[in-house]
Amino acid sequence: MTSTDLELCYLSAADVLERFRACSLSPVEYLAELIKRAEETEPVINAFAFTWFDQAMDQAKEAEAKYARKDTDIRELEGLPVAVKDQPDIKGQPMTMGSLYLKDNISAETDFSIQRLLDAGVIVHARTTTGEFCCSGVSDSKIHGTTHTPWKSGYTCGGSSGGSGASLAVGSTPLATGSDIGGSIRIPAACCGVVGYKPPYGRNPGCSAVHFDTYAVMGPMTRTVSDAVIMQNLLCGPHPLDNASIRPKYVLPDTYEDIRGLRIAWSMDLGFFEMDEHVHANTMKTLDVLQDLGAELVEVDFGWSAEADRDLLNYLDHLFNGYIKSIVDTDPDLATPWATYCANAAGKTSAADFSAAYETQARMSRHVGAIMDDCYAFICPTCNFQEIPADQDPNDPVVVNGKTVDPLYGWCMAHPFNMLGRLPVLSAPSGIGGNGLPTGIQIVARHLDDERVFRVATALEKAQPWLDCPERRPCLLRA
Hints:
The chain is built from 13 helices and 15 strands. The chain has helices at 6-9, 13-22, 27-45, 53-69, 112-119, 162-170, 186-192, 225-235, 277-292, 306-328, 337-346, 351-372, 450-463, and strands at 48-51, 81-85, 123-128, 140-141, 145-146, 175-180, 195-198, 217-222, 263-266, 296-299, 377-381, 398-400, 403-405, 425-432, 438-444.
């Protein structure tokens, strides 16, 4: 087999589409390179739960013919491969959510947001791995195995949208989808060195019951900020069958002004997280870059405490983990350690605990609102610790700076922003630590003001690019 053309594999989606339209690259040629890349990397990283390469190639041939004929009905993403997390439904396809309990499940309908991608002409060539029931920060399951970050063998790609992050970082897809109820888009974005966007709740429609929870969103995962704009503009907007979706459609601009003169708030630890030295160093370096670009940096204190962590866990334990428990109790032997851990947590909270989370959210909202009213955006790390095993067991201690932290949320800082669901949050790469693992920062803006996070992220990407050349790509699988 000939070697993979990595420059093709790492093209941005925008560049691929431009070449498709110019007929300087065919959808068939491009997909063939992605398949080749997947075949050489999957034995190492295991990012894909299912692949549909033959079906995808048939669709690529149809798209190739459309471009060759200069058809007038060529759609916005015609012929572009997209990897979809093994969690939203696609009619007629298996959807297991990483669980043996759902091994025979076939979706009867297509998720509203995924349908928008399909209507734009995408080709779903793969479904990406997730931890069982999307309930952990690692992507490890009995049904699909363990997914690794491409940057360093044995370490996690993050979760729960881990396969999406890993496949983007390794170059086996140009775009991927993720979902986020406690950081599941942003954690793998940080662990894999890619971009992940948690839109405000209601921005992107969905059709599952969990979509009515204000913590839960579906969003884009990409290698570049501009690709995230393209994808988000297709996903977003009201849907007649989703009462939670926001009117009117919010369209992100294609170009952004610089950030000179903007007042940007930041916090290293949100007031209570233990901080790894590699994350600290890369966050400070990134803040220096923003300052060099002309931003005015202001260190702030939201007044948060570990109470936010506990109340978020109570909220999810009472609501989400109760669902997991109802399934695990039918046959406990099928469950992963993480599903068992979450199921056991479900019975430890009360309605009063659940209600208290709303009180905490109200206090958090007031603190954030006052600061965000005075600042254009806010910066903090996405994960405060990177060295999490790919097959992390919830019963094994996670130690940061000599202190044992919560195995689920003690090493990542994304979940507090799920409690404030209308805030837009984008995770962007902040560098590679001295331990060889990527780090990320979260860019947060005031509620429903998506454009702000993309403006800051665009400026950062121009000054501190990632994955744009061989030296800034994963070494583990570099050809």
